[in-house]
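Pilot study result, target chain (545 residues):
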Amino acid sequence: MSSSNFIHIRSTLLLTVIGFLLLPLAHAQNRDISYMSSGGKLNPLQAIMDIRHYTISLDVDIENQKISGYTDIDILLSQKTDTLLFDLVYLLEVYKIKVNNKPAKFEHNKDKIYITCDGGFNAGKQLVKIEYGGEPPVAVRPPWNGGFTWTKDRSGNPWVAINCQKEGGRIYFPCKDHPSDEPNEGVDMYITVPGNLVVGGPGLLQKVTSKKGKQTYHWKTNYTISNYCIVFNIGNYKVVSKDFTTIKGNVVPIQFYVLAEDTAYAKKLIELKERDTKVLEKYFGEYPWVKEKIGICEVPNSGMEHQTMITFQNKFVYKKIGESDYSANLFHEYAHEWWANKVTNKDWAHLWIQEGIATYAEALIHYDLGGQAAYDQIINAHKRSIKGKKPMVGGDELSEDETYAGNDIYTKGSFFMHSLRYVIGDDIFFPTLKKLATDPRYTYDNFVTTDDVEKLFSDESKQNLKPFFDFYTRTTDVMDIVIKESGYQKYLIQVNNFFMPLPFEITTSTGTTRTIIGKEGITVDSSLPPQVDIKGYYYKKITQL
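Predicted structure:
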């Protein structure tokens, strides 16, 4: 690395340390982590690191609500550096660090671990071992405000859950906590708990070993995985399993980690999981993790999309769509196996891709179970819930908080998919949506932005959809349609804030036709005032003059 690059990195390090030292001292006094938000601008020290693999080995002291152990981090450096930078919540204490089996100097300041070496760290492979422990943060409002939840089931058995989408995996293990980098070679987890408890985790269970009244569960995933999905849950679980054959003929187990006291509910839930899988595979392609499992874990908080082990809690209460039972919590988190875990946003600025399309998937299963009326009802509900306080995409390199708070990424994202479907038609929309979910350019090791999604739909539809994407995702504007009487039984229909020609269904006294409205608008003949888009394909307001 050139001397100028060394100076740049050293300067960045100094500024970063100063910035974090100026954080309010209240954080250290009241164990507050509300300020933490994953993502944001990527630190130059971390931009040169490619995370390849994590090994997390922890003993969980449930009685004292503590953890202790180590994390091994395999990385590739793109260039030489004098400092390695990892994220770990200030509440945990770092005891010892080795780099390539040699003791290393380090500082743990305000959620950051700075590891230094007089001779620098060379480009290429590095193995970092960090030993640490302490009391991890306790979740305030899981899963939205994350941390550990230490509770008990109805029978009095310990029950532990972890949630960290907002804060990131750094709440309990040292990592590069940014959505743009996932461990390409997966994760190994060794979690030690009291012998009467069970650990559920990502991937496949490799082995359970017993020693001195404790059991260590070794979970392993070989897939790339988001930091906030690298979590485990502990409880008095029973495992109820059933094999499922995917749309491509692969056999993958459905495994439900259900509390022993709730095993009577497991059979029905697995049946719903089978049905939901078939619906999701129809629209988005084969279940993404066929080499591992379709996992569900019962937890004491609202569910999350933890990869190969989504979490679930609705007390086994279902609503009806047509004649079928349905759980929005179960289905939405499961849709995230495709939209979040397989197709992953490059940074949190583009979170609508994950949340919006997963929410639109709910409309699709409403159609499959209840027909067009059920689809129309939920889409209308999504449209009515749009607040329009800020754009879905507010820039680039944003933190989770900056995008999530006060945003319409769920319902406006879903309604945008509905509008896009109308503009380009089902024959293009559905194959393109499946392509987004299956093409290697957008899945697994690769990440997506709004521009990537727009370009794919533009290419497949052979029209420039960028103005349409920008209007919905980068503004809070409402399509402003004006209908003005221009003569005897003649009406001028215009879009005041026109951004591109779009198709509209226009209903006159002679019937309904699909017509393109351009910048100048169109004039229609009708003995009655015409109506525009009465089925509600667009996010709009209409003024009749």
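One observation from the pilot: The chain is about 25% helix and 35% strand. A full batch analysis is planned for the follow-on phase.
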